[in-house]
Amino acid sequence: ENPSIGSPVYFEVAKAAVSNLATASKDISNLTQAFFFILTR
């Protein structure tokens, strides 16, 4: 187990996970806003 090889891979995976999480929470936010817009009309 060589950390100098493992670390960049782990970093890329973590970065992708954070990016996906940010996209998902943005989608959830949009859905929530649309839902309340429909409810309050």
Helix content: over 70%
Order of helices and strands: H
Taking the sheet with the most strands, its summary is: none
Which spans of ≥5 residues are poorly predicted at pLDDT below 50?
Answer: none
Strand content: under 5%
What is the typical, i.e. mean, pLDDT? 87
Please tell me what the overall shape is.
rod-shaped
Number of helices: 1
- What class would the helix/strand composition place it in? mainly alpha
- Rg for CA atoms: 18 Å
Extended strand count: 0
| Terminal-residue CA separation | 59 Å
How would you sum up this structure, described in words?
- The protein has 41 residues and is mostly helical.
- 93% of the residues lie in helices and 0% in strands.
- It is built from one helix and no strands.
- The protein has one helix at 3-40.
- The protein is rod-shaped.
- 0% of the residues are buried.
- The mean pLDDT is 87.
Question: Any chance you could write out the topology, listing elements then pairs?
Answer:
Elements: H1 3-40
